[in-house]
Amino acid sequence: MLELLSSLCHRSKRFADAAAVAREFLSKHGGHERASEMRYALGVAFARSSRHGDAQKVCEGLARDARAVAALERPDRLHYELAWCLRKSGDAKRADASFARVLTCSKDVELLGEARLHLGVARLEALSQGPKGSQDK
Questions:
Q1: Are 104 and 79 in contact (CB under 8 A)?
Q2: Over the chain, what is the mean pLDDT?
Q3: Mean pLDDT of 86-111
Q4: Most C-beta atoms within 10 A of its C-beta, which of 10, 49, 86, 92?
Q5: pTM score
């Protein structure tokens, strides 16, 4: 029931409520087979609430837990969400690595396109800056 309520909160853009429901689920049912999905939902709720540091912490913790990642229906979405958290925190290098991870694990054409787009933009930005130390002073 809590998982359904979390989903409804996400769909109605009530992200603070979604986070609260996810936390309640995890505190009561942390060992449940759907706990990984609720950890992901908690990270997304934080991200959509502009709580990027909290979202990054949740997503990184989940991404480090191989068993939890294997339990996700769509681990590619976790890596995409983590990439955005890292980008928002200013960690472009790790964000790009996470976007690249999406390319290795996703079959979702739209998500693949988004990841490629962000990697391409990052590459163009790097090329426009030129080699370090070569910019005019």
A1: no
A2: 93
A3: 95
A4: 86
A5: 0.86
> Average pLDDT in the 126-130 region?
87
Q: How many CB atoms lie within 10 A of CB 130?
A: 10
> In the chain, what percentage of residues exceed pLDDT 90?
88
Identify the pLDDT of residue 67. Answer: 95
Torsion-angle region of residue 104: left (phi > 0), alpha (psi -120 to 50) or beta?
A: alpha
Residue 24 neighbours by CB under 8 Å, 6+ apart: 2
pLDDT greater than 80 at residue 137? no
In contact, 99 and 80? CB cutoff 8 Å: yes
The structure tokens listed for 54 are 């909290």
Contact between 35 and 19 (Cβ < 8 Å):
no
Contact 19/45 with Cβ under 8 angstroms? yes
Q: Round to whole Å and give the CA distance between 132 and 60.
A: 30
Spatial distance between the Cα atoms of 41 and 48, rounded to a whole number of angstroms: 10
Of 116, 85, 121, 122, residue with least CA distance to 101: 116
